[in-house]
Amino acid sequence: MSRQAQKLDSAAGDGAVGIGVLSLDLLGQVLHGLWEPRDRKACRLVSRAFERAEAAHRRALRVLRREPLPRLLRAFPALELLDLSACASLDDASLAAAVAGAGGGLAGLRSVCLARANGVGWRGLEALVAACPKLEAVDLSHCVSAGDREVAALAAAAGLRELRLDKCLAVTDMGLAKVVVGCPRLEKLSLKWCREISDIGIDLLAKKCPELRSLNISYLKVGNGSLRSISSLERLEELAMVCCSCIDDEGLELLSKGSDSLQSVDVSRCDHVTSEGLASLIDGRNFLQKLYAADCLHEIGQRFLSKLATLKETLTLLKLDGLEVSDSLLQAIGESCNKLVEIGLSKCSGVTDEGISSLVAQCSDLRTIDLTCCNLITNNALDSIADNCKMLECLRLESCSLINEKGLKRIATCCPNLKEIDLTDCGVDDAALEHLAKCSELRILKLGLCSSISDKGIAFISSKCGKLVELDLYRCNSITDDGLAALVNGCKRIKLLNLCYCNKITDTGLGHLGSLEELTNLELRCLFRITGIGISSVAIGCKSLIELDLKRCYSVDDAGLWALARYALNLRQLTISYCQVTGLGLCHLLSSLRCLQDIKMVHLSWVSIEGFELALRAACGRLKKLKMLCGLKTVLSPELLQMLQACGCRIRWVNKPLVYKD
Question: CA nearest 99: which of 139, 61, 72?
Fold first, then answer.
């Protein structure tokens, strides 16, 4: 609990009457000033006045289990944003019942997230829309079973302005037609991976939704005809069409004849788009700010560069990943786009120190530079970046093996605002981390495959980088329990931690990790020294844990699963492949973790067929993703598999031999 929360707790305990006489508005402002959810919860638990204030002022709610949903909707009548994406086993009946039980409490609800809620169908959506007259935003992304009937249910929300249908695989032109006719005020629409939608649907969309500002048609099988229709949208500002293989330069020329309102265009992985087509698109686009052209261009022509120069005052982001570049090209980009804030050159061949130096000399406002796999650059490039880009916040250098601590010293000294750096497979050592420790604003540090890093380097980082939230130590196999002790002593805010293949770590090290209360994602793959004792320490201490990877942790047994079942109540994704667990432990785990949605359990040799059967039946209705050996497909009961699929669970079968022990 923070010091501020402790003071409020003390005040509530010693003089609850004093707090009780304060107005709900004042108490609401106090709660709003508490950043940590656990602090707000502490105040709510010790004072009914705070509880009433939160009920009156709470605007956002994220629900993890369906059972308390009706009560929560009644308790917070002022909600504007409701997130049900992690609500395990949510289905039509439970959603409709919760909505009905809320009475008029959802009258102010404006945004609902139902991403991956595969159990929700058209009946639940109809009930939701009917109860929320002010509904403006709905997210149904990754509801792979959602089709035209589900989308049609949303058409009754006439005030809808934002809709995400990413990977709603069964949605066709018919469903899209229902939405665009019923919701003409749409401003943001994402149809990514809705591959049954064609040029016909996009044409009707353009005619019926003139206020559209953001559109994502990535991975659709649409062609140039769709771009002709889209060009009529006079207010369109953002257009993403990643991997639209039927779109070419002719389509971009058609798009260029429309309004000049476009500010962001993404043609990444559009194989038939060339720099000539992009030149046509840029022509006259005086407001274009972001251009994504990753993995689509083979070369850049002079016409494209000349048109790029017309965006000198507006273009802030340019991604050219996978392009073959030269020093002269990078110099030309620097001269043409000196207002750039982000440049992406990931996997670009031909990137040299000279090219980077000429680029950054002109682009001093750069805050994000991606040089992933640009393996020709050396410390000289880092020197140029440090000298020119004083406001740098993100630097990605994965597989740039020619850099060392000298270049990183310059970066750390000259770029005090650095928040993210990726040094995966760069071979840096403890000396480099000693310099990077000067970056007190650092939030994300990736050091995977840097085998020279030891506990000493981790101690440098932990001593000064207290704001760190993500640390990747993949295959840093010199790290021991002492390094983890130093880490948790100084970096208490870590949320994501990758320790895969750091095989010197034992249960003692996991005991140290138990003090990371904010840890949400932990990867422990192939740590053969850890056992159920260490897993227990993590489960008890890391109450916020959401994802846990224990693949090939051969000594983890039922004791670890029992600890997870009892304490890791928020766990949503778990990998236990190759662990020495039995059917009893697996069954107890799956029956206890109400939030668990994704589990990978390949090669659980000690689990019998009956064990798998009982465990899966215990979790049926909650699981959304499941990974198992293909051999189980023929021995598990067909009724169970049908039931899992009917509840929206996607099963990935691994084609390896089935082995289990008696």
Answer: 72
